[in-house]
Design a protein that fits this description.
Layout (H helix, E strand, L loop, with lengths): L1 H20 L5 H117 L1 E11 L5 E10 L5 H10 L7 E2 L8 E7 L2 E6 L10 H16 L5 E6 L2 E2 L2 E2 L3 E2 L4 E2 L10
Parallel strand pairs: 5-6
Antiparallel strand pairs: 1-2, 1-3, 4-5, 6-7, 6-10, 8-9
């Protein structure tokens, strides 16, 4: 449009100039000139129209191309929007499923936690008890055990057996019988009581087999100068000492070995049972 107006303006200016110049010419010349000018104007008009048409066509094509591009962009945007909508819908569905699972899971997790905590509590309690027992054993081993026990001795006439209280120390409670017997071989504290054993007698060990206590002495035990009444008194004193620790039967070994006879009169292959009653203390 701008080019068209520009050319029209030029034509008008040219026409006015020619008109001014043609005032002195002849009518024929004027007619010829007019005809020439009209032809020129027509040609220019036609060329201008063609250019305008071409420009219009170009502009129309450009506008059409722009519209097509806009339509394509709109379609792309719509496609993207649809895809986004579908993705959003899928995400919403996934979130809804996750929320449902989350709503269900806490209860299950709570139950699982309760079960696991219950399962963990039982072993922990058992472990605590085991630890406490181990600590108690360690404490007993470190501090030792002190206990008042009953020892038994004959009077100087070998007529009666009397009880004498004695405090003994042991590393553990299971070693109290050994500690009591070792205190016994050292003799009584009361002046009216006597020991019937050889002074070199030693208690080597005390073990248990099938509920029977096995006490091992050294060979000096058999060298004790005893009569038949003295032999039975010694056996009664030993079995009475062991009975307070829960042993109803006691077997005597020498140097860890079983003996066929003891003192030449007693059967050493069988355990002895405590047959006496309660013994009193001497005044």
């Amino acid at each position: 449009m701008k080019h068209l107006l520009f050319f029209i303006t030029i034509l008008m200016v040219s026409f006015m100039a020619l008109a001014a110049c043609g005032q002195g010419t002849s009518p024929n010349e004027v007619d010829e000139g007019s005809e020439v000018e009209e032809t020129t104007i027509e040609e220019e008009t036609e060329s201008t129209g063609e250019e305008a048409a071409e420009e219009g066509t170009t502009e129309g094509e450009e506008e059409a191309a722009v519209e097509e591009a806009a339509e394509e962009e709109t379609e792309d945007i719509e496609d993207v929007t649809e895809e986004s909508t579908e993705e959003s819908t899928e995400e919403s569905s996934d979130e809804a499923v996750q929320e449902e699972e989350t709503e269900v899971d806490p209860a299950a997790e709570h139950e699982d936690n309760n079960e696991s905590s219950t399962e963990d509590t039982v072993p922990e309690e058992g472990q605590e008890e085991a630890v406490n027992e181990e600590e108690t054993e360690v404490t007993d081993e470190e501090e030792g055990v002190t206990e008042t026990v009953s020892l038994y001795f004959s009077d100087d006439q070998l007529m009666e057996i009397y009880r004498e209280e004695r405090t003994v120390d042991a590393e553990t409670e299971s070693e109290l019988p050994l500690a009591a017997l070792r205190s016994w071989v050292q003799g009584p504290e009361h002046e009216n009581l006597v020991s019937l054993l050889d002074e070199n007698t030693e208690v080597q060990s005390v073990i248990t087999e099938n509920g029977v206590a096995i006490v091992s002495f050294n060979s000096a035990f058999l060298e004790s100068n005893l009569g038949s009444s003295g032999e039975m008194a010694v056996i009664s004193q030993i079995t009475a000492i062991m009975k307070q620790f829960g042993y109803n039967q006691t077997k005597i070994h020498i140097n860890g070995e079983e003996q066929e006879t003891l003192f030449g009169h007693l059967d050493g292959s069988e355990p002895f049972s405590h047959e006496g009653g309660e013994y009193s203390t001497i005044n």
